[in-house]
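Appendix B. One record, verbatim.
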Amino acid sequence: MDTPDFTTSILVNQSPSEVYNAVNNVRGWWSEEIEGSTNKLNDVFMYHYKDVHISKMKLIEVIPNQKIVWLVLENHFNFTKDNSEWKDTNISFEITKKGNQTELKFTHIGLTSHYECYEICQEAWGNYIQNSLRKLIETGKGEPNPKEGGFNGEIVKKWKLQSN
């Protein structure tokens, strides 16, 4: 059976504003290897993890304290036959007040179980949201991938040229 999208949620005691600010602090929960701005409409940023994964994201929907959506403009995995899996998918963060708590619903729209990366990606997203982002929201300190000393130069140069 094909799973349509990957979704996971967390419930925290912090306000929608605090959750929204934490989500926008991508370097604080996903990776310190982020290049570009990550918090306003039409911002474009790049994510990198060693030579394994590099992505270029664009913020396409930003509703303060309610919703953030990224469009995956480019993507490269070194471990899949189709190393562009994720391209043209959306990553959505929906924030809603639930009584005295705030729910964050994360959905990677288009990350389906037919993707070769699905198992690895759902495990990774689960950890980033359930562990690192939750810790950033609750304690002010997440567990992002640490800085590695630079991006995969050739791919980044190519993507930057395509953007201009």
